[in-house]
Amino acid sequence: MIKEDNVLNHSSFEIGIYTLGDIVPDPHTGKVISAQQRLTEIVDAAKLADEAGLDIFGLGEHHRLDYAVSATPVVLAAIAQVTKQIKLTSATTVLSTVDPVRLFEDFSTLDLLSNGRAEVIAGRGAFVESFPLFGYDVNEYDDLFEENIDLFLKLNEQEKISWNGRFRSALQNAEIAPRPVQKQLPLWVGVGGSPESAERAGRFGVGMALAILGGDPNRFKPLVDIYRKEGIEAGHNLNDLKVGVTGHTFIAETTEQAKDEYYPYYSNYWEYVNSQRGMSTRMSRADFEQMSSPDTALFVGSSQQIIEKILYQHELFGHQRFIAQMDIGGIPFAKVAKNIERLATEVAPVIRRELSK
User: Fold this and answer.
1) Cβ 64 vs Cβ 127: under 8 Å
2) What DSSP character marks residue 178?
3) CB-based contact 319:245 (threshold 8 Å)
4) What is the helix (H) or strand (E) element at residue 171, kind and residue range?
């Protein structure tokens, strides 16, 4: 059994936000904003989060007309110019369909522009459109991921590299430039519910970002245990095996107000996403009430409710960071901005204080 005291430096707990940049109709007005406006609002949200004192801003990657962000490092570079302290991460980079050399160079450049604030969260992503788009076979996902993460970690360590693999051309004493401000770019692996992904993250000794979008958070505890067990057996330091939790979040004055305001956007989001997967199910209010109850992982409620859920999950996982997704389903920017303010001023200070005791 791993003691949590050996895992976490409580004073280092990080709180932030992330977005996937989805462009869907507002369920109340039917209005769809442009990709240009969505990108502008994303930059504004990052600026607000930075000014409010949050720790992390994450940006997802999709290659579809209903999402605004395909060039993650380009948008993060723009954000770097209007922020000062906040860490800038992908959330997630589809590592199986990107050249690790280009990925390293892009984020190393971002690291230079941001004075050492760049990170990468790598994963499969919610959709698979990048595989045919860039000429990869989705059936080779695991082999591609394994090879690409291995190469990325080697690029992190060496300015010049000779390397040979299966999916890309060999490297012969290749110069990898530029080098980042940080000694190495922090790399995390995004994990949904796959024990194999948790095992891989531990084996490589990188961070694990858990996407917990609902249900009982206890079901994710075995993934954290697998991750740490595999990491230790691979020879990695336990304190380097960091866990993050990500999840859908909406905060209001009271829990009932939060549920009343959030339900139209949340059900709208899932109806839209499920329709892209060939399903036409619609979430009822009763289903939503069950999904947002106090013992579930959906972060919807008053600031106190959110605090209690984060602290409960910390008892389970001993994690080092929490990143909230606040802008799904066509939520207007004004509501997103208010949520960022509540997270930064009402939730984060209490979490940091409680975990520093």
Assistant:
1) yes
2) P
3) yes
4) strand 171-175
* pLDDT band (50, 70, 90) for residue 275: confident
Whether 322 contacts 310, CB under 8 Å: yes
**Whole-prediction pTM value?**
0.95
pLDDT in tens, 290-314: 999 999 999 999 999 999 999 999 9
331 three-state secondary structure: coil
Question: What's at 78, amino acid-wise?
Answer: A
H or E, element range at 304: helix 303-317
The CA distances from residue 322 to 56, 235, 319, 350, in Å, are 9, 26, 8, 13
d(CA 316, CA 259): 25
In this structure, the chain runs to a length of 357
Cβ atoms of 23 and 66 within 8 Å: the answer is yes
Amino acid of residue 4? E
Identify the residue whose tokens are 């076979």.
137
Residue 26 has a CB neighbour count (10 Å cut-off) of: 16
**What is the C-alpha to C-alpha distance for residues 205 and 51, in angstroms, rounded to an integer?**
32
For residues 218-246, average pLDDT? 97
Domains and their CATH numbers in the chain: 4-355 (3.20.20.30)
pLDDT mean across residues, the chain: 94
DSSP 92: -
Q: What angle do CA 187, 57, 210 make, to 5 degrees?
A: 55
181-230 residue pLDDT tens: 999 999 999 999 899 999 999 999 999 999 998 899 999 999 999 999 99
> How far, in Å, CA of 68 to CA of 183, rounded?
31
Residue 20 is predicted with a pLDDT of 96
Residue 295, CB-side half-sphere exposure with 13 Å CA sphere: 4
CB atoms within 10 A of CB 205: 17
Residue 355: other Cβ atoms inside 10 A: 17
Q: What is the pLDDT of residue 3?
A: 35
